[in-house]
Amino acid sequence: MRLTAIRAITFDLDDTLWPIEPVMQRAEQRLDAWLRAHCPRAAKAYPVEAMRVLRDRVAGENPQLAHDFSAQRRLSLREALLPHGYRDDHVDAAFTAFYAERNRVECYADALPALERLGGRYPLAAISNGNADLGAIGLVAHFRFALHASAFGTAKPAADIFHAACERLSFAPEEVLHVGDDPALDVIGAHRAGLRSVWLHRGTMGWDEASGQSDIRPDLIVRDLAELADLLER
Fold first, then answer.
1. Domain residue extents for the chain
2. What is the DSSP letter of 33?
């Protein structure tokens, strides 16, 4: 790949800048504690594991919300709370408690230094299927904008969301480098949309095994974002 042709970089967020599993575990525990304190009847019916099953069921029954995790969560809270005599204001307050914890993330050690380095050379943007709030997290200053599937209406790997980011950056897709951890959503999606791609691979599985195919490959594979910054600075 000719790195000199890159004029902007887009980033995935969850599992690219921070690990998402511990965040979601804490958010589920925070929601459970809030429900036990404020909606005990619903909390008894839906402890953490049961709430997780409910949320998955609601997601499966509402494919029109596949791109909007916040809407899925709110709908699952309505199904959990309203039959037990609670109101929509309880749903709103429960979601607020959950969402505040969802935005309490701990970035990978390499993430913030790399954003500083790369942001000094390229305009940066975020493209995410998740519902992280960069303002609440404290990272909004690093990015020109964040394009979320929930607001855009289409999720990765659809080409539309990648093209919309390129248009907002005012660069052609081949001039934009997308960085992400997910082989299908980030690498293959970006490739098919005409962008260059970086697979941020913190694990041990090789590309062919992780992606299930060998005909599409990332332009770069890096172990962390410091390695990406080093490569682009050269």
1. 3-19+107-233, 21-102
2. H
Beta bridge partners of 108: none
What are the C-alpha distances in Å from 234 to residues 149, 219, 229, 231?
Answer: 33, 16, 9, 5
Percent helix, strand, coil in the chain (nearest 5)? 55, 10, 30
pTM (predicted TM-score): 0.93
- Nearest Cα residue to 127 out of 31, 36, 197, 223: 197
How far is the C-alpha of 8 from the C-alpha of 115, rounded, in Å? 12
Helix (H) or strand (E) holding 58: helix 48-61
Cα(129)–Cα(69) distance, integer angstroms: 8
Q: Where are the beta strands (DSSP E) in 124-200?
A: 124-128, 145-148, 176-180, 196-200
- Write the CA distances from 2 to 5, 94, 206, integer angstroms: 6, 49, 23
Give the pLDDT mean for 211-217.
Answer: 78
Q: Give the mean pLDDT of the chain.
A: 95
pLDDT tens track for 70-127: 999 999 999 999 999 999 999 999 999 999 999 999 999 999 999 999 999 999 999 9
* CATH number of this structure's domain 21-102, picked from the four choices 3.40.190.10, 1.20.120.1600, 1.20.1250.20, 1.10.3660.10: 1.20.120.1600
pLDDT surpassing 90 at residue 210? no
* Contact (Cβ atoms closer than 8 angstroms) between residue 124 and residue 11: yes
